[in-house]
Design goal:
- This protein has a domain of 307 residues.
- Helices cover 47% and strands 7% of the residues.
- The chain contains 22 helices and 6 strands.
- It has a 4-stranded antiparallel beta sheet with strand order 3-4-5-6, with helices on one face. It has a two-stranded antiparallel ribbon with strand order 1-2.
- The protein starts with 17 loop residues before the first helix and ends in a 9-residue tail after the last helix.
Length: 617
């Protein structure tokens, strides 16, 4: 009742939390954190208490202080969310949550900003970044052990601050708040590295769970900042530390081992799709102890609890088991010098088709019935561009279908004998076209910048570009990529610019040749001879760099080599367009003769680095 007077219009009061007063917005005055600050994802600085009346005898003034300061030592991060309002009630953990138990005393003094970043991780970061089936581990279990472990606590503050800074910049709130969150997050990032070194080097230490959790959280920090190289290093360190010996450390929370496996393997799969390293980051003993992606054989008759998410896990298992993924995507750029045999590719296709037949939840939600195999008799020239959109009940199901289509197209393309229209090439084209339809359906719904760290349609469009049937398909793909925006590690504009530069290389090749390079399907070239774009991971500068390679095969089509034909470097404006671009052209130089070898050197050093048990992250 004390706040009921504020409901009358026309009355102005100088109350509210310090943050809302500073932002000059109306505060709902919920305590200890107002709903306005929760919605804006900003730090609520609490409420200023009235100054006490000084004693006329002593003449001592009581200094002003905030309620948040007086309560910071007795209020836990979860108690901050307690409120009778419907909006904030969703942040209160269930009675069964580990966070509902009494939280041990803090290992050190915590400030309001630290509690706010911890609160942001629990209520916003964890639900956004981690799969629903593992959210209990990351939000509740990890959030609980952080109160007794400085290493995990600092890692949570790092991801909470960096993620909050991303959201503030995306929503165009004050630059000052965004910078404060980012600086605080990076400060905790550095402290996590310091604690990580002492934790992993301590003699006789066997409990590696905090180091693994912290390594995964730091990898996510780098993903949000769009830095693939350091993300891969953290990911490998966490994967190497995770093994059967870790299971006893998680005995109090049995789902933890599976959650850690699934999260590391998910990031590993995404990273291998961007940078073609060949060895998975989870060690072999860990792979055998817990089936890849942390799931057991879901195709068995006794399987229960099936979902679209579990069907995606099964698909990734199949892809990851085949040749460590790299050769099927990257072909000659991978560390292997020979292409997969036709027998291996056929087995891979049969595994994919078996998954397709046993994944009803993924495909039943499609707006139309999809054939198991495409109708190759349908003329490709008559397929409309823009394509008819293909809709699914969920975005997750749509992306799982697109992922399946991408690898079916890859395998059919590699089985193609090089002729213009053999059946394998036609199948590859039809799978690519179905992905164009899925992309049209997704963009018809919504496509915007997000921090989602997962496979996205922009990556699948980028990988499918080399298997487009016509120049018209390729042009549409580039236009669609420009609509995708920045999504975690995936930058649709950078993908679009990388592919657009291929046109300049093709034009140069046509001008220098003595014959017209125009096969039946519109200057895109034969599948085996098309240019392979390789977008370098972005470094600390604001430049993007891509190399362009042309595959060559031996007469028996078994061994493959790469020749570098060009390099492009450019900067992007705020809209993602190329502000300036510089080309360097090469006359079919070997990969080792140009700067692209630096990426391969980094990949090889990443794969060859020793086990990090006794090294710092």
């Amino acid at each position: 009742m004390e706040n009921s007077i504020l409901s009358y219009k026309g009355i102005r009061v100088k109350t509210g939390c310090l943050t809302c007063r500073k932002r000059r917005v109306k505060c709902d005055e919920l305590k200890p954190i107002c709903k306005r600050c929760i919605k804006a994802n900003v730090i609520c600085d609490g409420y200023q208490k009235k100054r006490s009346v000084p004693s006329p005898k002593l003449g001592i003034k009581t200094p002003p202080f905030t309620e948040a300061e007086t309560e910071s030592t007795s209020v836990s991060g979860i108690e901050l969310t307690a409120s009778s309002s419907p909006e904030s009630a969703r942040y209160i953990p269930s009675p069964r949550s580990p966070l509902s138990a009494p939280i041990p005393s803090s290992p050190r003094t915590r400030h309001r900003s630290e509690l706010a970043f911890y609160h942001h991780f629990v209520t916003s970061t964890a639900p956004r970044l981690f799969d629903l089936e593992h959210i209990t581990f990351w939000r509740d279990h990890v959030g609980s052990i952080a109160w007794g472990n400085d290493l995990v606590f600092e890692a949570i503050l790092a991801i909470g601050g960096i993620h909050q800074a991303y959201l503030l910049s995306a929503s165009e709130l004050t630059a000052e708040s965004m910078m404060q969150s980012r600086v605080s997050g990076l400060r905790s990032y550095g402290e996590t590295l310091r604690l990580m070194e002492s934790h992993t080097k301590k003699e006789g230490r066997t409990d590696m769970q905090p180091a693994i959790v912290a390594g995964v959280l730091l990898a996510y920090c780098e993903c949000i900042m769009n830095r693939i190289k350091p993300a891969a290093l953290h990911l490998k360190a966490a994967g190497q530390l995770l093994g059967p010996s870790t299971a006893p450390d998680l005995s109090s929370y049995p789902a933890g081992y599976k959650a850690l496996h699934a999260t590391i393997a998910k990031l590993d799969f995404l990273a291998q799709s961007i940078v073609p390293y060949s060895q998975p980051f989870i060690q072999k003993d860990s792979h055998e102890a817990c089936n890849y992606m942390g799931a057991f054989d879901s195709f068995s008759e006794g399987s229960v609890h099936r979902s679209v998410s579990s069907e995606r896990v099964e698909l990734v298992q199949i892809i990851s088991r085949f040749n460590h993924l790299d050769n099927i995507i990257w072909g000659p750029w991978s560390s292997k010098s020979s292409r997969p045999s036709s027998e291996a590719l056929s087995r891979f296709q049969m595994d994919l088709l078996y998954w397709r037949a046993n994944s009803p939840l993924t495909f039943d939600g499609c707006s139309e019935s999809l054939a198991i195999l495409p109708d190759c008799d349908e003329p490709l020239d008559e397929l409309p561009i823009p394509p008819e959109p293909l809709f699914f009940q969920s975005r997750y199901a749509a992306l799982s279908t697109a992922l399946y289509n991408n690898y079916m197209a890859c395998s059919f393309s590699m089985l193609s004998n090089g002729h213009d229209h053999d059946r394998n090439a036609l199948c590859a084209f039809h799978y690519v076209y179905q992905n164009l339809r899925i992309a049209e359906g997704l963009t018809a719904a919504t496509l915007q910048d997000s921090e989602n760290i997962d496979i996205n349609i922009s990556l699948l469009l980028y990988l499918s570009f080399r298997r487009c049937y016509s120049r018209e398909w390729q042009t549409w793909t580039i236009q669609k990529l420009r609509q995708c925006g920045q999504q975690g590690l995936l930058d649709g504009s950078a993908f679009a610019n990388t592919l657009e530069n291929i046109y300049h290389l093709q034009l140069r090749a046509e001008l220098q040749s003595n014959y017209a390079l125009k096969p039946a399907y519109n200057t895109t070239g034969l599948l085996h001879s098309r240019i392979l774009p390789l977008l370098q991971p972005k470094d600390e500068s604001d430049r993007w760099v891509a190399y362009y390679l042309r595959p060559t095969t031996s007469l028996d089509h078994e061994d493959m080599n790469l020749c570098v034909i060009g390099r492009a470097a450019w900067r992007q404006d705020k809209r993602g367009n190329m502000a300036s671009v510089q080309f360097d052209f090469y006359d079919d130089l070997a990969v080792a003769d140009v700067g692209v070898a630096s990426l391969r050197d980094w990949i090889q050093s990443l794969e060859a680095s020793p086990r990090l048990r006794d090294q710092s992250f």
